[in-house]
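Run folding on both entries below.
>entry_1
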Amino acid sequence: MVSVDVLVIGGGPAGMTAAAAAANAGLSVALVDERPDAGGQIYRGLESGPFRESSALGADYRKGAPIIERFRSASIATFFGAALWRIDTDQNGGRAAFSCSGLHMSISFRKLVAATGAMERPVPFAGWTLPGVMNLGAAQLLLKSSGLVPSGRVALLGNGPLLLLFAQQLTTAGVRIGAILDTAPPVNKVALGLKHVKAVLANRKKVLKGIGMLRAVRQSGIPIYKDVSDVMALGQDQLTELQFVSRDYPAKLELDLLLVHEGVIPNTHLSRALGCKHVWSDSQACFVPFTDSRGRSSNRNVFIIGDGASIRGADAAPASAEVAVSTILSDLDRANAKSRKVLACALHSLEKEEKFRPFLDALYPPRLAVTRIADETIICRCEEVPASALREAVRDGAIGPAQAKAFTRCGMGPCQGRMCALQVSQLLARETSASIGDVGSYNVRFPLKPITLADMAASAEPSVKDDSHAH
């Protein structure tokens, strides 16, 4: 079997940095990503999209250009547009199986770097399955990859930096936003800033950037509804109206499109399937993989970096990658003075970003996503399982996600629980009066993506030195 020293899963800022750093240090490296090109979600389309040579999406989007350039200039076997369906690990490393460009491939590795990034936090509420209700992040990806912008009566619901950024991007693109519905609970921003004063001062450029985005949104004249709760989307076959409460007063809007966002959470599907330990994070209100300060998971040959480990943002992602790769070099007896210097700088950068995160988590906590879900609201969209079915399962004896899945089929659909896992855990914890950490989440099993038996049988072993199938 042909093998590499390091296999990287994910081509976002963390994955690209890890792959380039490992390759430039003399290790053999392969990178696998399901997207068609490099950049991940945050830099989607920067290689081949409509804004690759434009500054219309802002300076932060352009930050990805040098990361991609460094990645593309390194000696790395790259497989974009791949469908990763299985990884097996042992004490010496492991083996990954995936399909790419119609070929079925297998690569063994000594170290695995999981850079799976983040996914948007699911936000179920009455009517969220109606056509016309979609995640804000999905709309942003359409803008980045195809230059598509929404039309008609549009509103943004939720909170967080991404919501403000996308509002600014849409306004720049000439889109008229009908309203922003801010779900963040009231908070004394001055008191919060004083509580985190050291982190705020150390990251004052980020704070000033956030203030600037908020000012730009206000100056654009978009109506902003504060302290929004009790949301209900209405319509027959399409969203037509949104009812909600703002500052204790009922309100409604006629809408064609509602873009929803209450932050992001780590994409842990792969790390769960690998059997890595996960823990509940109170500050981020989600499960995160357990890692040490160097990114090493409970499996010593598996490193988890970037937002796939904990939500720390795009600036922290490359630093976490450098830390992990420096540690891998030490594991493989390839460390030197240069790698130790890189490690020290990366640890310093990572510490700075990590200290700023609690301020953002306190400023933009999820609200609708952690509110008690009404019985009639769908939780599992794939199998159309409402909250009432899960509550009935609890009354019938289900005490954890696995039992609830068996009783209701919740989590058995094509997404394999990606979109409902967190909500199921929260509901079960509330209904059983147990801590969510004790309730846990779904057990994820391979294959990660639907695959035929013929594809499994045809899995081949490509040489990583042959770039004929690389993209």
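>entry_2
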Amino acid sequence: MAKAYDRVEWSYVECIILKLGFHENFVLQVMRCMTSVTFSVKVNGKLSDCFRPTSGIRQGDPISPYLFLLCAEGLSSLLKSVGPMHLSRGVRVSIHSLWISHLLFADDCIIFSEASQRGADRLRNILELYHRGSGQFVNYDKSAVFYSKNCMDNVKQVVASALQIQAEELAEKYLWLPMALGWSLKGAFEYMPTKVKALLWAAGQAMKLAVQGVRSC
């Protein structure tokens, strides 16, 4: 999402929290915290009159991440309720495991779907509906589509045209974890124990130097 915190509409936040079942008094207090912000612009060395926006969550505020998670629940609900008509159930790691249609983390989203014209159109409509309701806007320049090896080139062109996402890639790592894994999981994660040991060794050395410094004093 592009400038995710800045684009959240206050009216959407209020509606989504009420819809999730929170008490009206609680919602009122939350909205008071959000709408208390004011801005002024300095022009020629003088501040203008204060004005109040109608959107945006203040970054750094302790409740902002939680509010954004509640806002993202709207997108999740759309994918679960509107998406299944033309979007696939997603992926699963084994026969008896649950299907995963999408993953959300902060302002990033990974959606698993069938590569088809109707699936791409439905996903595009869902994102547009979410944009109209919440104010969130997908950053298509930083978005990418990852196709399976069985996907044909003509299908890729159809999906890319419908979604307006031309990039075909999958980041090697996300939050320091590999995005794509092969059959050998040991090789993909063997760097983690080494890195943790290195951090612990560095911390131990720092502690030794600190103790020596205290003794010398």
